Structure formats: C-alpha cells, structure tokens
C-alpha cells in the first residue's frame, strides 16, 4: 500500500469522526505486516476527557484483528469537515498519549513504526518514526528488569 493510499484511508476515516465540540476530525489508518488495513476516528464526548483519539480507536481494532505486534505503518490525518470533505492544510501528528500507545505497539513488534502525518485536505504530509516522535519513550522494553 502506498503512502497516498494510506493517507486516503485516514482521511476517509476522519469523515466518520464524532467531533461536535472541537470540530477537528481525525482519522487513522493502520497497516499490518501482511497488508491488512484497519481505520479509526476520534470520538468526542460532552465530558471532554472521555473522548477517544483516532489512533487509539484504530489501535484497538488492530489489536483485535491482527495484534499490535504486527503493525508496521500508519497514517494520521486531521482537519475540519465541510460538505463531505476533510479540510485544512496543517499536518496532524499524534498527541502525546497516542505516541505512547504507538510506542507500546512498536516495542511489542520490535519495529520502529512509520507514521505518515497528513493535512486534512491531503495536500501535505510528513513521515516520522515513532522513535523520533517520542525519544527516550517508556514501554514494555523498559520493564524487562521487573521480573
């Protein structure tokens, strides 16, 4: 799957977001080692802290379908939604909490997961590795001395 196809899947997922408060629709598409694709979107809640990010939504689905350890690449796109299209030219990156969750999956699979971060309108993107987005992160690999 190309980066453009992965971005398109994330942008499509973002249009399914429930974001009545921030109006910032985020979608995530995750690709497995064997080519399976899952998506997720952010889901807000009137009690703001009870919302869920698109990445967490997609990670949960990935765990159920093929396991976190099999994730190799993902795309995140976010922006406004107008007339059935995702808008905005700012590149969306995972929040800190999502970076931590992605790091967990990366360490489980011994993979430095590639994250394609895209603008809502798809006009711009950046490619990052989770190790670059959360340097010196703490995950399962740090607990080996716990016994």
Number of helical regions: 4
Q: What is the β-strand count?
A: 6
CATH superfamily: Cytidine Deaminase, domain 2
pLDDT below 50 for ≥5 consecutive residues: which ranges?
none
- The CATH architecture category equals 3-Layer(aba) Sandwich
Give the class from helix and strand content and strand pairing: alpha+beta
Task: Please state the average pLDDT score.
Answer: 96
Secondary-structure element pattern, one letter each = HEEHEEHEEH
**Beta fraction of the residues?**
25-35%
As for the number of domains, it is: 1
Briefly, what CATH class?
Answer: Alpha Beta
**What's the N-to-C terminus distance?**
40 Å
Percent range of helical residues? 25-40%
CATH topology title: Cytidine Deaminase, domain 2
3D shape: globular
Largest sheet properties:
6 strands, mixed
Which radius of gyration do the C-alpha atoms yield? 15 Å
Descriptors:
Cytidine Deaminase, domain 2, globular, 147 residues, 28% helix, six-stranded mixed beta sheet, alpha+beta, 4 helices
What would you note in describing this structure?
- About 30% of the residues lie in helices and about 25% in strands.
- It has about 150 residues and is α+β, with helices and mostly antiparallel strands.
- A hairpin with a 4-residue loop joins strand 1 and strand 2.
